[in-house]
Each structure stands twice: as C-alpha cells, then as structure tokens.
Amino acid sequence: MAIAVRFPRSSLYLHHFRRGFTFNFTSVNNSQKQFIVTTPRRNIMTNSAAWLTAAKARPFEVKPADTYTPAEHEILVENRAIGINPSDGSLQAFAWLPLKYPTILGQDISGNVVAVGSGVTRFKKGDRIVAHAVGMGSQRIQDNAFQAYTIINEHMASPIPDNLPYENAAVLPLGISTAACALFQEAPFLQLHYPTEPAQKPTGKVVLIWGGSSTVGSNAIQLARAAGYTAVTTASTKNHDYVKNLGASEVFDYNSSTISEDLTKALQGKEIVGVVDCIGGNALKVCVEVLHKVQGKGAIATAKGGVDDPPEGITIKRIFGTTLKDNAVGKAIYVDFLPKALAAGTYIPSPGPRVEGKGLEHLQAAVDRVVKGVSATKVVVTL
Ligand SMILES: NC(=O)c1ccc[n+]([C@@H]2O[C@H](COP(=O)([O-])OP(=O)(O)OC[C@H]3O[C@@H](n4cnc5c(N)ncnc54)[C@H](OP(=O)(O)O)[C@@H]3O)[C@@H](O)[C@H]2O)c1
C-alpha cells in the first residue's frame, strides 16, 4: 500500500534514498511537494554515484544515478571496493581531459556480477570479480567506477579467488592495465612476450622499471617476471625489500646522486628489451641517459612523459592505460593470465590496500589522500 508522506525534499529524500526506498514524486500544488513511498524495501539495483558535477567542482556529490543494462558482451557489477588512482585527483583539480559534466570518475573496481549480457560466457550472476572500468577511454558514464554499479566489458574482468578480499583485488586494474600496455602492446611499446602462469622460463633479458614501488611499477615487475624477463628497478631504500618480494632482481635508490651511474654500471653488457618509466619528468630523463649509454638504442614506455627529443635510436611512447581494451593485450591479461595467476597465488595484488572508508561519501577523502602522496600503498574505498 502506498503511504503519502510530506517532508522537505532536500534532507529526507536523500536519507531515504540511501536506505533503499523508492519514491514517486508528485506535485500537490505550486508551493508544496508530496512524496509517495511506494516500495518500503531495499531495491538492490538502485544506483548512486559520487558525481563530479562540473569541471573542477569539489567535493563529489553522492546522488542517484541510472541503473544500467549490460549489452551483449558486458556485465553489470555491484561494486564492493573501489581503488583510487592519481588521475582521479588530477582530473578533478585540473580538468585536463575534456569531459561532459556531470560525470563520474574512477577506473578500479572489485565486486559481484549482478547481470550479464546475452553473449557473455565467462561470468554468471554472483561471481566475484576484479575489473578495469574503462570510462576514461569510452567516455560513457556507466563505465566508470565511482558508483554503486558499473558496466564492464567482459574481457576486462577476471574472476577472483574466494580468499582474496575485495579491497585487495581493487588495487589491481589501472596498475596492471598500464603496466601491460607498456610491456606487451606493439612497438613503439615494448612488445614483449605475454606473461603466463606458471611463469615463462627466464630469458635473461632485462626490463628497466623506474618507480617499482608505485602501483604501475609493482605490476610491471610482476608481469615482466611472469613473462620471463629480469626486472631491474628503482625505489626509496625503505621499499627495497617490497620490490624484491615482487620479483625485482636488483633495486637502486632513485634518491641517490649517483643513480644514473649506478644503473649504467648494473646494466652494462646486458640485453635491455626496454624501459618502463612509471614516474616521468626527471626520472624519464635519467632513463633516456642510461639506455643511451648502455645500449645506444631501445624503447621507453612512459606513464607520464617529460622528454620530447630523445637521442636517435631511443623511442619514447606515452602510455594511455585503457588502450589494451581494444587490442589483444586486454584479453591476454584479464582472460588468459590474471585469473590463473591469482588462483595460483603467484600474482600478489600490489601495493596493499589502505581502506579510507566505507561508502561513496568517502571517495573525496580517498582521492585527496592520493593527491597528498602515498608510498607503496593503494588507497581504496569499500562499499
Ligand atoms: N598514462 C597512464 O595511463 C597512467 C596510468 C596510471 C598511472 N599513471 C601515472 O603514473 C604515475 C604513477 O601512478 P601510480 O598509480 O603507480 O602512482 P603511485 O602508486 O601513487 O606512486 C607512488 C609511488 O611513486 C614512487 N615515486 C615517487 N617519485 C618517484 C621517483 N622520482 N622515482 C621513483 N619512484 C618514485 C614512490 O616511491 P617510494 O615510496 O619508494 O619513494 C611511491 O611508492 C602517476 O603520475 C600517474 O598519474 C599514468
């Protein structure tokens, strides 16, 4: 039975929306409004989002969002944890990508499948998954992470083991995608052999990964190792054990005044199949210098850029971490590699999560936390 309730729209509407009530909104007269509470029960498909209402607006506003229906090769996911990336804060602050507002940010989710498209064979309702929400690439509102439900391309999701908590899984997506774009996409990226589980036999060939304790670097080290390459990396001394545990063979302190010489000496005589620069700016300059001195040629994939005119023989290619969704690398990672490696426990979602809070309303603080800077840590919000 419908119950008529009169109250100011602003406060109680939101309160009841959050509690899962459904409202019909009807005009009573010109000055007053009436809400009819028609469904006093939890509607599990009710969506809400942390909206970025305009360019450079803050804080995010938690408000209703559409509920989506997955197309043929898509799944609808009830998000249980959302990972935060540096781009979330920089996009909010600087609006460096042209976006249509209001919009929703975010790329990293883990959660439960609640609906599947007609062509989906890998997933069913109830499956626990981790996935890369590719809204930055697709520019569709339903493909973004900062909401209760997100549409995911089937081939950009992996099932997760029962013993992997959602918050640990949510650290993965943009980090592993960006590292995979750098390492495995066709030239001018590094175009290396794909990773496998069990790992490929070591080739002895070296990848230099600058910034091994970053999220992108932590994934680049593990992917390189699984693909049979030797990962040489840089990190603060406090994170040397951390990157070695992920599989780095050697690690150097990037704060050292002799970092360029140290790397040059360590890499001399080795075959360098490429460089992944996870930091950019001066870090990229040193990467160019080292590669030029040691080998005179080679490919550098950079997450950030900062050098426009490398010496002849050195190529620099900027990564855009969602491009793998449109080439063979997306499937190679999320379909063929990650599910097996997570199940075997040989791929450790890294860096470990720091949970900032539970609920979409904690996303602003979580984004602000990442903007302040983190060390070998991934900030996550649970839902
Ligand atoms: N192009 C793309 O598609 C794409 C995708 C993802 C990320 N990114 C960009 O890539 C960068 C890394 O992202 P993320 O999520 O991996 O960052 P993150 O995890 O937040 O990075 C934090 C880490 O960076 C390390 N670091 C800081 N300055 C460094 C330096 N000069 N040399 C070596 N390591 C340094 C710190 O190491 P210590 O604590 O050991 O000092 C820290 O552990 C960001 O600028 C991000 O915007 C780009």
Observed structural traits:
disordered N terminus, binds NADP nicotinamide-adenine-dinucleotide phosphate, 383 residues, 6-stranded parallel sheet
Give a description of the structure.
With 383 residues, the chain is of the alpha/beta class. 28% of the residues lie in helices and 27% in strands. The chain is built from eleven helices and 19 strands. Strands 6, 8, 9, 10, 11, 18 and 19 form a seven-stranded mixed β-sheet that branches. The radius of gyration is 23 Å and the shape is globular. The relative contact order is 0.14. Bound molecules: NADP nicotinamide-adenine-dinucleotide phosphate. NADP nicotinamide-adenine-dinucleotide phosphate (NAP) binds next to helix 2, helix 5, helix 6 and strand 13.
| Overall morphology | globular
The tally of strands reads 19
Ions and ligands: NADP nicotinamide-adenine-dinucleotide phosphate
* Mean pLDDT reading: 90
Measured between the Cα atoms of the first and last residue, the distance is 31 Å
Please specify the SSE layout and strand pairing.
Blueprint: E1 3-5, H1 9-18, E2 22-27, E3 33-39, E4 47-52, E5 61-65, E6 74-83, H2 86-94, E7 103-104, E8 108-116, E9 128-132, H3 135-138, E10 149-153, E11 157-159, H4 166-169, H5 173-184, E12 206-210, H6 215-226, E13 230-235, H7 240-246, E14 250-253, H8 259-267, E15 272-277, H9 282-294, E16 298-302, E17 314-318, H10 328-344, E18 353-358, H11 363-372, E19 378-382
Parallel strand pairs: 12-13, 12-15, 13-14, 15-16, 16-17, 18-19
Antiparallel strand pairs: 1-3, 2-3, 4-5, 4-7, 6-8, 6-10, 6-19, 8-9, 9-11
The site of NADP nicotinamide-adenine-dinucleotide phosphate has 28 residues, from helix 2, helix 5, helix 6 and strand 13.
Pfam family, one: ADH_N
InterPro entries: ADH-like_C (IPR013149), ADH-like_N (IPR013154), ER (IPR020843), GroES-like_sf (IPR011032), NAD(P)-bd_dom_sf (IPR036291), Trans-enoyl_RdTase-like (IPR047122)
Organism: Myriangium duriaei CBS 260.36
